[in-house]
Design a protein that fits this description.
By secondary structure, the protein is an alpha/beta fold. It has 2 domains: about 5-230, Spore Coat Polysaccharide Biosynthesis Protein SpsA, Chain A (Alpha-Beta Complex), CATH 3.90.550; about 235-325, no CATH class. It has helices at about 5-10, 25-35, 55-60, 75-85, 105-115, 140-145, 150-155, 185-190, 200-210, 230-235, 235-285, 290-310; strands at about 10-20, 40-45, 65-70, 90-95, 100, 120-125, 135, 170, 175, 180-185, 215-225. α3 links the parallel β2 and β3. α2 runs parallel beside α3 and α11 (about 235-285) packs across α12 (about 290-310). The protein is globular and about 60 Å long. The chain starts with a helix and ends in a 20-residue tail after the last helix.
Length: about 325
């Protein structure tokens, strides 16, 4: 069934998690409205922003739903709150630094109509300059953690690709959460995002669980979005890497058991130490005049200190709600 963009947009609710998104949040919301999403179907969950982003949206797009936190509740919890407020046929998770391109929601709707077994779909992501971003990936494995990616691609090039110029829907193991759509009717069986993940890996775990119940995950390259990519993480390099590795360890502990968890844990510590040592040597060789090398080395040593101190729960992204400080 081919539908126009306005009708397609009415079939969607859009959930956007915001943390000091600035003008990017307004651009994100405006792209959804242009695609025909009624403002009342746009749900913004704000994780304790201190900027003007929410005020700008409420002033310029009356009718959007806003859920305010006074602290950082994490991505998964914020998304779940938004999903509970949604009542549409499809729910789109859209990063606040992403904007839908014309026809994106029509492409999602057409994909869901053509593929009745599809529970989760991911769209094509591009940088503002048009370069293609990674948008899908295989589920993480111990082998992937230990072996270099180029070796894995030599072994299985199709499985370990993360982007493609192919224009046809592709069945994949997981899609990235920057522009991810879920069929609402599967949620009673699939469940919501796992809130043990604060930031990173929550959508990968969701896709893993979807596969376990026999649901299909697809990459839909005609559902396009521009994604600036990593704006929040880039503002907090060391803390963001802590959250990434914490979530990675949580994923292996939950999905692959104690042996995999301990093996990946030991390898992460070793790799972080080696990278930190190499970074320090590179800084010394350049008399620490190269800012990029200084930041890179400092990030690795921050991360190594987190491991060495027993991975304190208080380390990571700032402004966390008090009940999120006790997690792994």
């Amino acid at each position: 069934m081919i539908v126009n963009s306005s009708y397609a947009g009415a079939r969607f609710s859009v959930v956007i998690v915001n943390y000091n998104g600035g003008e990017m949040l307004f651009d994100c919301v405006r792209s959804a409205v242009r695609e025909g999403v009624p403002p009342s179907h746009i749900i913004i969950v704000d994780n304790g922003s201190a900027d003007h982003s929410i005020h700008t949206v409420e002033t310029n797009v009356p009718g959007v739903q806003v859920i305010l936190h006074h602290c950082n509740a994490g991505f998964a919890r914020a998304v779940n709150q938004g999903i509970r407020q949604a009542s549409s046929e499809f729910i789109l998770l859209l990063n606040n630094d992403a904007q839908l391109e014309p026809g994106a929601l029509r492409a999602f709707a057409d994909g869901f109509d053509a593929l009745p077994g599809m529970a989760i779909a991911g769209g094509q992501l591009r940088y503002p300059d048009g370069r293609l971003q990674s948008a899908f990936a295989p589920l993480p494995t111990v082998a992937e953690e230990i072996l270099p990616l180029f070796v894995l691609r030599l072994i299985s090039p199709d499985r370990f690709r993360r982007k493609t110029l192919d224009e046809h829907p592709i069945a994949v193991e997981s899609v990235l959460g920057a522009c991810l759509c879920v069929r609402s009717s599967v949620l009673p069986t699939l469940g919501l995002l796992d809130e043990d993940y604060f930031f990173f890996f929550e959508e990968i775990d969701w896709c893993r669980r979807a596969g376990q119940i026999g649901a299909e995950i697809y990459y839909l390259p005609t559902a396009r979005a521009v994604h600036h990519g990593g704006r929040t993480a880039n503002r907090f390099r060391g803390p963001a890497r802590v959250e990434y590795q914490r979530s990675k360890l949580t994923y292996f502990r939950k999905s692959q058991g104690a042996a995999a968890f301990h093996l990946v844990s030991a390898f992460l510590v070793l790799r972080t130490f080696i990278n930190g040592l190499f970074g320090a040597l590179m800084c010394a060789a350049t008399l620490c005049l190269n800012r990029r090398l200084r930041l890179k080395a400092a990030t690795y040593w921050y991360l190594f200190c987190w491991h060495a101190l027993g991975r304190p729960a208080s380390w990571g992204l700032p402004g966390k709600c008090s009940d999120r400080l006790g997690s792994f």
